[in-house]
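Sample A.
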Amino acid sequence: MRVRGRLTWGRRARAGAVVTALLAGVLPPAVVLAPGAATAGAAAGTPVCQVRDDRLREISGMVATDDGYVVINDGADDEARRRIFYLDQRCAVVRTVSFPSRPRDTEDLAIGRDGTVWVADIGDNDRSRPTVGVWRLAPGAKQPVLHRMTYPDRPHDAEALLLDASGRPLIVTKGGSGTVFLYAPATALRPDATTPLTALGQVTVPSTTTSNPFSFLGRGVITGAASAPDGRRVVLRSYADAFEYDVPDGDVVRALTTGTPRITPLPDEPQGESITYSRDGRSLLTVSESAGQPAGTRSTILRYPATATTVTAAPSTESVDPVSPTALRPAAGEAGAGGGRAWPLALGAGTLLVLLGFGGVLWWRHTARR
C-alpha cells in the first residue's frame, strides 16, 4: 500500500535496478555522449483531460476507445488500484473490472480490433519471475482471463505490449541502452497452461537529446507501445520520446527490426509510461504517473500530432527471422544479462564520475521525498 511521501517497494526496486546497472558499467558511454535527432527544445503536448480519481496515481498503460479510455496502474500494492479502469472522454472513471486473482506487475495495455483488452502483466524489476502473463478481457466478459508465459532464455523486465496483425501479443523488453528484445508466444495461448515465448529479434531506437526527468537514462528504455487503429503504424515510447514505425504489410516484427522510426519528442513528462493512438489515428496520446510528484499533481492525458515524415536515423540491421534464444546477445542495460562487452579504455575516470553523478541524482529523485 502506498503511503504519501514514500515509495512503493516496486518503484524503489525499479530505481535501484537502474542505478545498479549504471554502477555496474552496463550502460555504454554512447548513451551519454551521442547526439540525437530530437532536441530538448521540443514543444509539450496539448492537454486533453485530467484524471482526478485518487486510485489512478500510477498509470502505466492506456488505450483509447470510442467512448473514452481504458487505463491500468503499475504494480499491485493497493487492492483498490488493482482494476481495469474505464474512463469517459473527460477522464472520469465510469466503471472498473476486477482481476479474479492478484496480478504481479501490470505495465501496459493493448486493444484488439474486436475490442478485446489485453493487460500486460510483464513487469519484473528484479528479473526474477518464473512466468509473466497477459490478461485477456473479451468484449462483454465480466473478468479477464490470465495466460501465463515463460521466456526461453532468462527473465526480463518489460513494460510494453503490442498486437500483431493476427492479434498475437508481442512483448517489448524495457532494455536500458536503447536496445530491446521482442518476444511472442510460440503456440496458441491457453488459460490452463504456461506457454513458451520465442525470441523474434531486437530493436535499437535512435539516440536523442530530449529533456526528461531521468536524463540519458530516460532515453534508453522502452516504457510503452501502441498500434494504430488501422494497423499500419506502431509506436514505442521511452520516458523522453515516441518512435513511430510504418507497418505497410502487417508485419510488425519486420517493421520494428528493419524500419526507420519517426521521432516525436515527449519532453519533461513526469514519468511517462503510457502511449496510445487516438481512434482516428491522427494523434498520439500519452499519460504519466503522478505518484511522487508535488502535492495536487494529477495525471493528464496529452495529445501530440502523429508524425508524417521520416527523420534521419539509422535503422536496425538485425534479421527479422525468428532467432534462437542463445543467439541473442544480452542487451546493455539489462541487469543480470551477462557481460562480455567491455568499455573502451579511453572512457577514463572522468566519464565514470559523470555516470556516478547521474546515478546519484536519479536515486535521490526517487527516494529523497519525505
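Sample B.
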Amino acid sequence: MTTAPTPVPASASAAQSGGGDPGPATPATASARTAEAPRPAKSRARGSRAWLAALPLILFFAIGFGLPAIAIAIGAFTTSTDAPDGGGTFTTDNITGSLQGAYWTALWGSVKLSLLTALIAAAVGLPLAQAVATSRFRVFREAVMSASGVLANFGGVPLAFMFVATLGNAGEVTKQFGLTKHGWSLYTFSGLSVVYLYFLVPLMVITITPALEGLKVQWREAAYNNGATALQYWRHVALPVLLPSLLGGFVLLFGASFAAYATAEAMVGSSVPLISMQIGDALSGNVLVGQGNLALALGLDMIVVACLVMAVYLPLQRRSAKWLA
C-alpha cells in the first residue's frame, strides 16, 4: 500500500523551485511587507526636525560670516564715501591697487609666512601627537593635551612681550648665548616665524591626535605580519589614510597664521610686510584720500586665498572619513 504525497502549496513550491507564480500572499506575509515598507512621511518629518535643529547655526553663519562677506565684496568693487564723486560707484581700482606695489608685497609675505610656519608646525606636531596617541601614561596624555589647548589660544600682546623679553635684542636668552653676534634678530621674518610656531605646534597636536587615534591596530599588525617595517607601514598605510587629515590640519594652521594680527603688530610693526598689517593701517585711516574701500579689497584678497587653500582639502575629506570612521 502506497501513501499519496502530501500536496504542497503553490507559494511554497514556487519558492523552492525559484520560479513560477508566488501565489496569493498570506496575512502574515502581507503584514511583514507592510512593516518593511518605507514610510516617507516619517522620514520627511525627521528631515524637517533636523533642519530646525540646525537653523540657529545656519542663521549665525549667515549673519556672522555671510553678510560681512557680501559687504566686503560690494565695498571692494565700489568707490569709498570719501571719494570725489561721493562714493558708491562701481570700480575695479580697489582690486587692482590691492595687487600692486606694497600691497602685493604684503600679501605675498603673508602667504610665505603662513606656508612656512604651517609646514614646520605640521612636521613637528605630527610625531608629538603620535607620542601622545600611543602613550600608555594617562598623566602624560592629559598634560600634553591640556597644555596644547592653552598654548594654541595664547597669542597677541602677551605672547609678543614674552618673546621680546626672552629672545629680543636685550632678552635674557639672547644675552646669555650671544645670539646677536650670530645674526639673530627677533624682529625679522625668521623671528616672527619662531613666534608663530609657539601656538601653531600645539594647534596641530590638537587637530591631528583624533585622526591618529582612529588608526586601527589591526592595520599595523597586518603590515608587520606581512614583513613590513615601521617605515613601510607609515609610508604605504598610515600616511595615505592620514593625508586628508594632515591637509585639514595644514589648512587650519595656514588660516591661523594668515589671519594673525595682534602678535605681529605688537612685535614687528611694519618691518615685516603682512597683509593683516596693511588692512589695519587702512582701517585706521592710513590710506590715500578716496581709497578707503581699499581695505575691503585687501580683505577680499584674503578670502580668495583662504578659499583656494580650502579647495585643496575638501575633495579629500570624504576619503579620510571613510577609513577613520
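B remarks: The first helix runs from residue 10 to 17. The mean pLDDT is 80.
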